[in-house]
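Notes continue from the previous slide.

Worked example: a multi-chain complex. Inputs as given:
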Amino acid sequence: MAYPPAAQSSPPRQPSVKVILAAADVSRVVDRIAHQILEKTQGAADTVLLGIPTRGVPLAKRLAARISTFEDVTVPVGVLDITLYRDDLRRHATRAVGPTDLPSGGIDGKRVILVDDVLFSGRTVRAALDALSDVGRPASVQLAVLVDRGHRQLPIRADYVGKNIPTALAESVKVTLAETDGADEVKLYGGTPS
Amino acid sequence: MTAYLIKNVSLVGAEPTDLLIRDGVVAQTGPGLAAPDATVLDATGLVALPGLVDLHTHLREPGREDAETVESGSRAAALGGYTAVCAMANTSPVADTAGVVEQVWRLGREAGLVDVQPIGAVTVGLAGERLAELGAMADSAARVRIFSDDGHCVADPKLMRRALEYVKAFDGVIAQHAEEPRLTEGAQMHEGEVSTRLGLTGWPAVAEEAIIARDVLLAEHVGSRLHICHVSTAGSVEVLRHAKARGVKVTAEVTPHHLLLTDEKAETYDPVYKVNPPLRTADDIAALRAALAEGVIDIIATDHAPHAVEDKECEWAYARPGMLGLETALSIALDVLGPQWDLIAERMSRAPARIAGLEGHGLDPAPGVPANLTLVDPAARRVIEPAELASRSRNTPYARMTLPGRIVATFLRGEPTVLDGKAVR
Amino acid sequence: MIRHLLSGADLDAATATQILDTAAEMATVAGREVKKLPALRGRTVVNLFYEDSTRTRISFEAAAKRLSADVINFSAKGSSVAKGESLKDTALTLQAMGADAVVVRHPASGAPHRLANWVDGSVVNAGDGTHEHPTQALLDAYTMRSRLGRLAGLHVAIVGDVLHSRVARSNVLLLSTLGAKVTLVGPPTLIPVDIAAALAPGTDVCYDLDAVLPGVDVVMMLRVQRERMNDSYFPSAREYARRYGLDAPRMRRLPEHAIVMHPGPMNRGMEITPEVADSPRSTIVEQVANGVSVRMAVLYLLLGGNNR
């Protein structure tokens, strides 16, 4: 989930749209992240994938599916809703709270990999870290994102990045996934990368 | 004494003519009058009515001078077109002795803006237990003829019978606040759909109708005059119609607010709409309007009930009941009845003056008649601003409503109390 | 988004459902080690209670604290008039203190409506006179939904002193909005004749409890104050209990799945027997727990964003 979302939800002033990743690219990128996770975690033992709604959730499920295809290990997947931990609640009308659904084995002592679609300011991840510490005590926390578009406002970086996209602040990145939007695609609105 | 020549005025809705006021009486009427010594008022488009008479006013003095005084209430009355008001007895102390009614009467004379006719209490302290000294009040300088425990019902049937009988000796009349108290314990508003929804204890229509039914029978039995205050329900109208058909000497009043506002006003929980009897339903309003046109209800009386801000700016249940009325009554009448000037004069001046036995009031402007009259601009429309009212209180239910008609001038025995829509003092 | 919660009528089906869904998420917090969420950090919630109601006040207090709001308890027992300070002056004081929400319990119907005119913050009606108690209706709806899986199409009997019950009014409004059918049961003296027209057309009235029980999914017993018999609403507590009390033989007339609710505090032996109150069909304890979750949801939805 990119941040601030206003940049995503408001229609771009410039009609210019550029497709950064097509469906086949998204699929390749997810495969690569899955491989990287297996490599960096020595086979994804004691690992839990927690998707951050909305699009982090199907991404986490895809990663788990690819990991089990590649190595025949089952990585538990859960959902971490961060709404109540956001630092911008008062800037918007009240946001609907979504479900948080942790795997039955819990997260205590596990390696938790947070999964989101776009890494932008880092505020969503900050909220996710706060939420995580209220629901358990993982041994370590990592971050996987499909796209890193830069412009961090907090000292946060991702452990797994599908694609780095240099952007201007005024531009917006929109990820669509088959599960949530009908098709896989990553688009850049508002101009070409500088 | 200044003479006034009022040019091109419609006398109670008739063709425009001129009207000369001199020495406190109407000296002359007719077209093309001239009087070099007179102050000339151009009354083109205005209607002259006999000065309005309110049979039901709360002036709050003595006791609650923070809400209204005889003087401030008199000014409000004059601005509303009134030349006489009957001041209700529920003051503090209660107007249940010759001393208190004379005090109110004297304060009215001193203010000099309307004739203030005190109403005496029926029972001592309005407590409903024993008769006040009705004869002493009748014989006092205030010459009390109307007696009422208004705010409280004379609920005891024996006491009511005695009161009705006793005042025959001086042609008095009992003005009954018809409310069976056992049926209205804790009542906050009209009992019906809205009270059920709002969780406010209901004031059932039958509590009024049952007392009116009882009292018209009592009045018939003892051959006395009875007046019913602020009739508010369709059922009461039916009882009155029946009684009048039988020849019972009963008269009845309706307030402007009961002709216009429904119980749905309570949905805001703003106690400015809390009044006793409560605002009723649209069906009741229709029945009351029909009864007023037909004469089953004889008069419009304001039940002008000023209340201090703190008695209204609070929870509904803790608020005092009552609404301002003097400065808006004619506008409401005009809104409800339309420009039926003869009917308005009858319901707001002649009939109330007759019921109250007020000499010199309720008489259409004609040579030799005391010049108690008011000039109305029927074409004017005004927005009611509570802060602009002359009353000391602000509890008008018509705030920011646009109402037709405006009082341009009022004369009390030939002297203007209102000119150009403003009180002369 | 609504600004105040004064009446069950303030909630349309979508908003009411959103509150129930949010409450379900809030309920998971109760099972966590850290029973706290940061969503209302820096917000101030004032509990303004003109009536003693420890259970309701504690429920709101727990809800606000779990959302990290600052809570100020302002107990103003007795009427504001009797105490000298008017409700308006109290409101202006709370306003000056920066209250973001005022949770008000008051013996006068409509007092929360008046308060809402005088404060900038949100007003939550925690029970006003004989008018409404909307969060009680929400927690009742939540309890029904979690026990029976749905609200639409449920048949709910509300039994007892409907005339004086703020719980009944809010429940009729909310349950009708959410598609349940309500039958009001009690002696005719305690059921206003025009209640269906006043609140929700389609609401039924029945004076015979035994006739209603076999066809309902939920039976909600209202507290009946013994004082009512002194005002001739019914002849005696014994006769009331015999005609309208829920005892074990009556409970057996209910369908297998039906549940028994009571907003509390109960008059055991009057409207409900201990055997029924303590039976597995009874949701009385759950209702209390659900109260916190539902009030968290309400406070979050009123204060969790910029809804001005």
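Summary box: Chains A and B do not touch (no CB pair under 8 Å). The beta strands of chain A are 17-21, 47-51, 77-79, 111-119, 140-148, 160-164, 172-176, 185-189.
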